[in-house]
Amino acid sequence: MTKTFLSPPIARILGIAGAVLAIVAAMLPWTTFVLNKGAWPDKATLQFFDAPFALTGFRWELFLVGIVALVCSVVKVPAQRRVLRGLGFGVAAIGLVNFLFITAEGGGLGAVTAADGASAFGSVAALVAGGLLILGTFGQPLEEIPRWKTNLPTPVEYLGLLVSFAVLLYVVSLTLTAGGQGGAANPYSGPMFLSFLGFGGGLMAAAAGLGILRWISKLSEKHRAFSIIVLLLCAFLLPFTNAGTEYWMTVAANIGVYAATAIGLNIVVGLAGLLDLGYVAFLGIGAFVAANLSGAAASSLGIHLPFYLVVIISAAIAGIFGAVVGSPTLRVRGDYLAIVTLAFGEIFQIAARNNIGGLTGGSNSIPNIPPLQWFDGTAYNESITLFGTPLPSGVLYYFLIVVLIAAVMAVFANLKNSRMGRAWIAIREDEDAARAMGIKTGKAKILAFLCGAVLAGIAGAVFAHKTSTVGYESFLFMESVTLLAAVILGGMGSIPGAVLGASLLFVLPEKLRAFSDYRLLIFGLALILIMRFRPQGLIPDRHRRAELAGEDAEGHTLAETPGDEPEQPRPQEVPAR
């Protein structure tokens, strides 16, 4: 039981005061003078603060969070303290990000407080508001997350899923475009993006406290086929949003390639528990095979095959190498297996750099790989018009990669739920016990490497045509580490977890480019925080959730699940003689 040091009336007053102060902070100036790189965005600089109620950007986001917090403080809502705590962290994050970066950009403390008779306390007020909201939740123990009914009429449940996924699409679009593209036009794009993350994180925490996220998860699991179709539709609709630019289509296509590769690695690491530090080599094998068989001018083979044949051959050759690399797993495990796979990755990189057999181009790479073409002759790297809407160049590659991810996810799901998938999970948990139960562990581990390599080979073939140039620089050791981090960050053994992990590992560095030398430091700190508070991953499967978080599939502790009554012992019946 959590100790209480604030009475409920005082906690309520603090919550209301924090919410009101957050609303006021949105209407205050945030900097007393123009900084070295220009005025702070959204007219937050005092010299341009001529319309306090014309809220835009991070000030509008702070205002919305404050309004929601005020409603939840005044009106009794389920899990009220959980909701207010999440909103409080969101408000505090917006205030802290702006406070730190205004101070660091040459303004000093005078820029965020008072200087030369001028004052601007917006960020300070936001920090105090967030602190009051958080402090007000310590009056009593946090409530249990409510459970909403999922036995509604089917049309109502379908409508709920449609609305939820539409909101998800809108949030993804906002996240990609938050802060703009950066550069000289917006030197403060990084802080604005982090402010948006604070805003989105606060609302997500509130939705989780209300049980909305759990309700959506249950509905999507109940109507799995419908949810998959709607998610695919949302993915295809992304180019029609504000994120449908050539820049983000290129980034999204690259994310898709690495997400498909991470799903393949999830078979090896997430299901079978085999640490592979050279997995990117299979992606490279698929890419180099496709480059040599697709009619590239620099290829020494001079062969031009149809794309579907190239994909099949790339997958087959990558699978053969996967089986070869998997053979040593019959006798080594743990750290020794990691060294073997690391050696394979380095051997592949050195061979590609030295152009062994004339198949990799060496330091010159293999350029000018012909782009894929649609049935009417339209190249995939050209812009198109669909449903009367002009779409940027490269959108056809994005559509292709969405289909690729869907196919790879279907393969992974069937493998995970198959007899071999259960054997892999048994090996991951205890290889000796699995062998004692009759599982042929050697064959199973080789099959894990083979299946993972096949999926990476397919992704590599698409990668070669998408980038039009394949060189050894794209398949270094750090790429393997990034793929492994995507699997662990998203959740080992989780299908959507690998996609989310890959997306975060590629979107965050792109959005943090405004921080120049500090972006990798911020990125690393974000990963440390995520792993500290979510060791099971962002979207874990039930095995990892039970092992690392001690929770069941619904988020309750395994030791004590709410609503379960202890079973009473049955009286023994004495048989009649």
UniProtKB/TrEMBL annotation:
Tell me where on the tree of life, at the top rank, the source sits: Bacteria
Where does the sequence pass through the membrane?
12-33, 53-75, 87-112, 118-138, 158-180, 192-213, 225-241, 247-272, 279-299, 305-324, 336-352, 395-415, 446-464, 484-506, 518-535
Tell me where in or outside the cell this protein is found. Cell membrane
Cross-referenced InterPro entries:
ABC_transp_permease, LivM-like
Q: Which of UniProt's keywords are assigned here?
A: Cell membrane, Membrane, Transmembrane, Transmembrane helix
Q: Describe its membrane topology.
A: Multi-pass membrane protein
Q: State the residue spans of region: Disordered.
A: 549-577
Q: What is its main location?
A: membrane
Its recorded name reads: Branched-chain amino acid transport system permease protein LivM
